[in-house]
Design goal:
By secondary structure, this protein is α/β, with parallel strands linked by helices. It contains ten helices and 14 strands. It has two domains: 199 residues, Rossmann fold (3-Layer(aba) Sandwich); 102 residues, UDP-galactose 4-epimerase, domain 1 (Alpha-Beta Complex), CATH 3.90.25.10. The strands form four sheets. A seven-stranded parallel beta sheet has the order 3-2-1-4-5-6-11, sandwiched between helices. The protein has a three-stranded mixed beta sheet with strand order 12-9-14. Helix 5 links the parallel strand 5 and strand 6. The chain is globular. The mean pLDDT is 96. Bound molecules: uridine-diphosphate-N-acetylglucosamine.
Length: 325
């Protein structure tokens, strides 16, 4: 009952690999190491370096390792990059996912979990966002994710194949045991950037926009600890193995925090003021993105265990210190 993890050397993928290994599951990682880090994959996982669109390699990996389920993390994730170079996003996220899905169907894989995003929802959809809220992705990145959701829907209808879509809100923090974390050198994420500022590696944090229609004027997001997100994948996998049908789940806490609240959290954790510089809005940033997580809680029994903001920040700073030393 081995699980194939594409993108298992990446940020969320590697946390999920560790969580699966911790409970004794057999895992094989397929990663081309374009952004992933080999050392962050647990030692007990089998590792295959290669591309998800390499159909022969995928077929061989599935057969050789007795793979019964697939969790598909591999893909490109930077929104502004997708605006500048949409075709490479459609290639990496849609065309390559199509090849992977086809290889899975041909190999008789019936359980498939797909990493999607909160940015598939329409900007004016009511908050907190439920899974059925209107979809209207704006960036090529978000569109590529929704296109893959649609492919999976059609494949699940046509074949003996079931899948779960997990729509991530703002993922932050790092493995409490320090085994893995966010390693992208040019990361743009708020909590990662704030951790870099807190360690003096960047002189100040830019606050992108103070005139949003939010309580303090700064953007509001639902920050979820990556270990709670990894746990959601394990529950989704168990449900599929147990015969659950195709569905989608929002992965967030249902709690919106503003940029200023995150800054205050970093100051609380470090005991020092965080240098900030207020500036204009970053193009494409919506004011608010908050999950309604009732479905994943009630259907999968998901219980957040790392939802304290200070703990999320502490783990991000600890990883940042470790990663760059
Ligand atoms: C993130 C993800 C996106 C995902 C979305 C889901 C990345 C690169 N982005 O986008 O893929 O679909 O969550 O909700 O993984 N901010 C600052 N200063 C900074 C950085 C950010 O003020 O230096 C603000 C932003 O304007 C925003 C908030 O902080 O209001 C969060 O930004 P960020 O961490 O970059 O994530 P998202 O853009 O929400």
């Amino acid at each position: 009952m081995t699980t194939l993890i594409t993108g298992g050397a990446g940020y969320i993928g590697s946390h999920t690999v560790h969580a699966l290994l911790d409970r004794g599951d057999a895992v094989v990682v397929l990663d081309n190491l374009s952004t992933g880090v080999r050392a962050q994959v647990g030692e007990k996982a089998a590792f295959v370096q290669g591309d998800v669109a390499d159909t022969a390699l995928v077929r061989e990996t599935i057969a050789g390792h007795g793979v019964a389920s697939v969790i598909h993390f591999a893909g490109s994730i930077v929104v502004p990059e997708s605006v500048a170079d949409p075709l490479s996003y459609y290639e990496n996220n849609v065309v390559k996912s199509r090849a992977l899905i086809q290889a899975c169907v041909a190999a008789g894989i019936r359980n498939f979990i797909f990493s999607s995003t909160a940015t598939v929802y329409a900007e004016d959809a009511p908050q907190p966002l439920a899974e059925g809220a209107p979809k209207a992705p704006i960036s090529p990145y978000a569109r590529s994710k929704l296109m893959t959701e649609w492919m999976l829907e059609d494949v699940s209808r046509a074949h003996d194949f079931r899948h779960t879509v997990l729509r991530y809100f703002n993922v932050a923090g790092a493995d409490p045991q320090g085994r893995t974390g966010q390693s992208t050198p040019k990361a743009t994420h708020l909590i990662k950037r704030a951790a870099m500022v807190a360690l003096g590696r960047v002189p100040h944090l830019d606050i992108f926009g103070t005139d949003y229609p939010t309580p303090d004027g700064t953007g509001v997001r639902d920050y979820i600890h990556v270990s709670d997100l990894a746990a959601a994948h394990l529950l989704a996998l168990d449900a599929l193995r147990g015969g659950a049908g195709t569905t989608s789940y929002n992965c967030g806490y249902g709690r919106g925090l503003s940029v200023r609240e995150v800054v205050a959290g970093v100051e609380r954790v470090t005991g020092r003021p965080l240098p900030v510089r207020e500036g204009p809005r970053r193009p494409g940033d919506p004011p608010t993105l908050v999950a309604d997580p009732r479905r994943i809680k009630s259907e999968l029994g998901w219980v957040p265990r790392h939802d304290g903001l200070d703990g999320i920040i502490r783990s991000a700073i600890a990883w940042e210190r470790r990663f760059n030393t």
